[in-house]
Amino acid sequence: MTTRDEFKQAPPFAFSVPGPIEVADEVLFANAHPSMSHVSPDFVPVFGDCIRMTREVLLTKSGQPFLISGSGTLGWDQVAANLVESGENALVLNSGYFGDSFKECLETYGANVAQLKAPIGRAVALSDLEKELRSGKKYKIVTVTHVDTSTGVLSNAKEIASLVRKVSPETLVVVDAVCSVASEEIHFDNWDLDIVLTASQKGLGTPPGLSILVASERAMNVFKNRKSPPSSYYASWKKWLPIMKAYEAGSPAYFATPPVNLIYAYRASLNSIVLGDLSLEKRLKLHGVASRRVKDAAKKLGLRQLPESEGEAANGMTALYYPEGLAASDILPRLAKRNIVVAGGLHTEIKDKYFRIGHMGITAVNEERGDIETIVRALEEAVKEARAAKST
């Protein structure tokens, strides 16, 4: 059987991309749990724990979690299939690549989708949202990408939800929080959100493969009062709601096999986030500290952030334009030589002009690892070496 010590060997590269992130040893060890039936008496309470602790991470007492095998993208399908009926209107607040993708998903299920598209590097202005909501068009949902991983832009989900409640109270507020849960502040109940969808492989510090979504009572009532059946088989809450209810109550149920080992890993990470020595509030503050350290170092090197406003820059990642006269081929290989792997650009209009550094989870909160200082040192050395090479 694999021993814990075997998981403590450092990887050859520091994986500093904005997801999937490096995960803690105890999470890796939990993921290596012996194979087990999803209806085993030993597994049932593990799944139940994950459902309950997911609520704690998002600060909700009444939200209904759905933990389903799949990527974060499955969250879009759940929203489109269960909450929006064919021909209904959806409004997408677009701050990057993932707004375009959510729009395409909603259209696939028959929604009429309008977009408010922010300039590159900015979030959608609240004034633009209010104008659209007051235009006379009734929207079933408004979606916002809390942190768009393609740009590192942070949208103000609290203010967006408040505005929607004031102007169009029946409209559901859907937050794509794949790149923000457990690295950015989210108060599900206090902000009066309807959907927060995310995935396991970013701030939640678990290997990829688990789609995580929480729905408000308002959203569940909209679902229960649909005129037509859900427009997906696998993503249907008619199938999954009884499963979630059963496992939380301590009984097994079956629709499709859950990722048993991944659920064990997710519980290990949730135990650290919810029950560990660091409170959730402290963890979020440490993400802010790590973010400031990386961004300040980049600024000293003359690197410009993609987000144009400090208040719209994510804490879990940093998106930086390449220095003038330098390109990906000048920077990324030099970072890799120093065992730092970062992500290239993703936004289609500027993908060759910038790169992205992830600093979520243990990279941000476990200061003893020294990940942030390693990233900063490698960035400083790579940029200085690249500039020196160009000047010779």
Automatic annotation (TrEMBL):
Biological process according to GO: glycine biosynthetic process, by transamination of glyoxylate
This protein's record includes keyword 4Fe-4S: no
Cofactor: pyridoxal 5'-phosphate
E.C. number(s) listed in UniProt: 2.6.1.44
GO MF terms, alphabetically ordered: alanine-glyoxylate transaminase activity; L-serine-pyruvate transaminase activity
Gene3D superfamilies reported for this sequence: Aspartate Aminotransferase, domain 1, Type I PLP-dependent aspartate aminotransferase-like (Major domain)
Residues with N6-(pyridoxal phosphate)lysine modification: 202
Keywords assigned: Aminotransferase, Pyridoxal phosphate, Transferase
Domain Aminotransferase class V: 29-349
Residues that coordinate or bind substrate: 356
Record's keyword annotation contains NADP: no
Gene Ontology CC: peroxisome
Membership in a protein family: Belongs to the class-V pyridoxal-phosphate-dependent aminotransferase family.
Record protein name field: alanine--glyoxylate transaminase
Protein source organism: Agaricus bisporus var. burnettii (strain JB137-S8 / ATCC MYA-4627 / FGSC 10392) (White button mushroom)
